[in-house]
Specification:
mainly beta; 16-stranded antiparallel β-barrel; 18 strands; disordered N terminus
Length: 411
């Protein structure tokens, strides 16, 4: 029916007829007007509650892994001396969500067990807010506040995720399992910035924090220590290069300081412990292979206080160490990869089996899909400097072998 076909039937009520005809025309126009996808989405969002919009922006991941460890001698990250141990496991839940405008919250809950001598460890791995302060097409400046992952070397920030590392055990020369919790994250404020030059990125990080104190880890270096508390720490890092398909470099400076009491208080009653680390990192990535090496210069010093109140250098000469690893990874295809690594940990001074460890390892990883991971590796080790003291109270063997395997799943 034509839009004005009914006007004549209204007779003397022509004015009302014209109004009805206009309404009929408007209705036909609405029915025949196309509505595009983005308009529908915008309309839907305008009618969606703020909570539903926030919930739809949440990003989360989770993982769980079970490790098998066998050693010919000594106990390594498990009660593994001449036996197969399943003590070692890890699990984590990662969370990321928008808080307000461009402010985001990131967090991780982590569970882990190392050996029978260590309790199951459940902790907040990190929990921080990220706020961009300045953004342009190729430049970003921002801040993070809370418990933040320490960007120590290339891989400290991702060492907990089985799918993002190369091996079951990290290179102990740089990423110590002796002091893993103390190094992984800390409470403080971090400023970060990066600038992109075509395919290359220049990045900066400056982190002021209060270190997380772990008394079990402190006793690995200072046996009589108790009541360990983190005082303050500074971490500064500069990086340059490509994440993929090319070289990248980084240099990291880290200086944490702790206060402690000693029991029993014979020579000293309390004191300060600090360390200074400089890590130089280099990596070259190609689609099928990667080469990585990192070199650490480390200095530790302890200042003790005698029971009478007089300060003294508990260790007159600070402890020094120079450590490094070199690693080559070959990717056969999207499912299979293998690595070969030499890991060198050695302190200065008198050489004993407790002061060094040379570890040559070969491993293979199979990822059948995006969720499952199967991994196995073999280690030939000289020295015992990387072993946990609490797991090896008896005589240690200087030359020993280890076989590690891992099954992991991520959501």
């Amino acid at each position: 029916m034509a839009p004005f076909a009914s006007v004549a039937r209204f007779g003397r009520f022509g004015r009302f007829a014209r109004l009805a005809a206009c309404a009929e025309l408007a209705l036909l126009c609405v029915i025949n007007t196309p509505v595009y996808g983005d308009e529908v989405e915008s309309l839907a969002q305008s009618q969606t509650s703020p909570f539903v919009q926030w919930a739809s922006d949440i990003q989360w991941d989770a993982f769980v892994s079970q490790n098998m460890i066998y050693t010919s001698d000594n106990n390594f990250l498990a009660s593994s001396d001449d036996t197969v141990s399943f003590d070692n496991w890890e699990a984590g839940f990662l969370f990321n969500a928008s808080v307000a405008n461009e402010i985001r919250f990131s967090g991780q809950l982590l569970g882990r067990k190392v050996s029978e001598s260590s309790d199951e460890d459940f902790r907040v791995g990190y929990a921080f807010l990220t706020l961009p302060l300045y953004q342009q097409a190729d430049t970003t400046l921002g801040a993070r506040l809370g418990r933040i992952r320490s960007s120590f070397g290339f891989y400290n920030e991702t060492r907990d995720l089985p799918h993002s590392r190369t091996s079951v055990a990290m290179p102990q020369s740089i990423y110590f399992d002796k002091t893993r919790n103390s190094f992984y994250s800390a409470d403080g404020v971090e400023l970060y910035a990066f600038h992109d030059f075509s395919d290359y990125r220049l990045s900066y990080q400056f982190f002021v924090s209060r270190p997380v104190a772990d008394e079990d880890e402190a006793r690995e270096t200072l046996q009589p220590v108790r009541k360990l508390e983190g005082d303050h720490a500074i971490l500064a890092k500069v990086g340059f290069g490509k994440e993929f398909d090319g070289p990248r470099f980084a240099i990291t400076y880290y200086r944490p300081q702790y206060s402690f009491d000693v029991s029993p208080a014979i020579l000293v009653s309390d004191g300060k412990l600090y360390s200074e680390s400089i890590v130089t990192s280099f990596e070259y990535n190609q689609y099928q292979w990667s080469f990585t090496t990192e070199y650490l210069r480390l200095k530790n010093k302890v200042i003790g206080v005698k029971p009478g109140g007089m300060a003294t250098a508990w260790f007159e000469d600070p402890g020094y160490a120079e450590t490094y690893y070199a690693q080559f990874v070959w990717r056969f295809n999207e499912h299979w990869e293998s690595y070969l690594r030499h890991d060198n940990s050695k302190g200065r001074g008198e050489r004993t089996s407790l002061s060094y460890a040379y570890d040559t390892s070969l491993g293979v990883t199979f990822k059948p899909d995006d969720h499952w991971l199967l991994r196995a590796e073999a280690h030939y080790i000289e020295g015992t400097g990387t072993l946990l003291i609490r797991d090896n109270t008896d005589q240690r063997t200087e030359y020993w072998n280890a076989v590690l395997a891992q099954v992991a799943y991520k959501w």
